[in-house]
Amino acid sequence: MDQTALKERIMGLVPDAEFLENKQFLTFVIPAEKMHDLAFKLKFETDLAFDFLFCLSGVDMVKFLEVVYHLESTANKHQLELKVRTADRENGAVDTVCDVWRTAEFHEREIYDLLGIRFNHHPDLRRLFLEEDWKGHPLRKDYVDEVNIVEL
Amino acid sequence: MKEVINLPVKNIEEEEYHINMGPQHPSTHGVLRLVVSLQGEIVKSLKPHCGYIHRGIEKMCEKDTYPQIIHLTDRMDYLSAHINNHAVCLLVEKALEVDVPERVKYIRTIVDELNRIASHQLWWCSFGMDMGGLTCFFYGLRDREKILDIFEESFGSRLLHSYYTPGGLMMDIHPNFQKGVKDFIKYFRKKIKDYDDLLTGNIIMQLRTKGVGIISKEDAISYGVTGPSGRASGFACDVRKHHPYGVYDKADFKEILGTAGDTFERYMMRMYEMRESMKILEQLIDNIPAGDYAAKMKAVIKLPAGEYFQRVEAARGELGVYVVSDGNKTPYRMKFRSPNFSNLSALDHISRGVKIADLVAIGGSLDYVIPDIDR
Known about the structure:
The complex is a heterodimer. Chain A has helices spanning 3-13, 35-44, 104-115, and strands at 18-20, 27-30, 52-60, 65-72, 79-85, 93-95, 118-120. Chain A is an alpha/beta fold. Chain A is elongated, with a radius of gyration of 16 Å. The termini of chain A are far apart. In chain B, helix 5 runs antiparallel to helix 6. The mean pLDDT of chain B is 87. Chain A binds chain B through residues 22-25, 51-57, 59-60, 68, 70, 74, 77, 81, 101-103, 105-107, 110, 114, 128-131, 138-139, 152, and chain B through 50-51, 54, 56, 58-60, 63-64, 218-219, 221-224, 235-237, 242, 306-309, 311, 318, 320, 322, 324, 332-333, 335, 337, 341-342, 344-346, 349, 374.
């Protein structure tokens, strides 16, 4: 499927998705409540078949938090970038996609640990790198590091 | 008279119990803790605990300029340091639309492949040692030394080189470089036969690895298991083939795919890959074009606002770099999709139902480097 056909296909699945200009990938902002349904369709509909989630990142955009999904289809060779924005910065929550792409389980734990985005229905949402009693989420822009006083 | 209390006797054959492997277990090759649930000696489930060597590289990147970040990427997967550098360099060059000289592309590709061989050699010796063959360890390290000598002569260091810079290379290659690489290929073509004689054909090793720790192609894709481990299951995930960078499109090499997806297949993939890497080296080493070793770059590198993604094939799988830039000289957010991190996430799935001794073999065949998992 070429870029324009794929764009129309995604817009057909989620009419209120927002299209973003991006040189490298076809990028959409998906409403948070529709992400899980879309994930299922993206993976299991044969003309899409996005079976490989090759990157899952979290970004602190100050006004909101963002989860970025990079997807590739190993059969159809097309790529896609999806973004989900949380409405609330303090209690940001997104539905998990780890039942669709299993690799998401670890990546979502990492994002929860470092950015504090909660993933609904995640089977084991604990901190991954930092200790259980760690305060705050270090990759947030307003995080103050009290131990490392050296400012670069 | 005191009442005698009969404590219930636990039957470890039937009851599930937990043991810790690590953080200082020799088979984890670093500081990784695996909490293993066992019934008898059968692994029921497994929970990896990471973070013992978490340095917050992604957070540090937000305060560093792009040439400084190169030095941090060395310290993720230190066994494929050059390839990690390559990812960030390609990303900066793509964002700034800089054309690097052909000479740089050739040298980078050659050095990447040398690095891949060195990494697989170290994997081979530690895998042999995990299986109980100490001789492998000496053979592997002896041959890896030849590559490290080439690195030392040309780049001044043996492990953490930081040889690539955005736009080119730190310095030109040493005049002996080409001869050194050719001598190495001649030497290693003979020695890799010893590897096969010593370990690949060994019946004990085959019995311990064949049919152990199977992951299907669908699961490998779903878990994002890439690199030789993913290809052993038949997942065509070689970034060098599917999204070529450097001069990989000019070299003739095969992406070898396995079918079984077991520990032995993962072992064989790396043995094949070392030979394919030597094939690439032979094709490129005599054709390095003359020219500059770096393109002209501005003194302060600022990426235009936007987001960029670059994928490269590191020795253990696909390394992705995702950068969100706000137009400053430091990235707004930098994320590394490290191959070991995704490969580790599949370990629980792979090792359910195997014996605890096989867990060591599976771990060895996934070849994880812990600083790359924790970052």
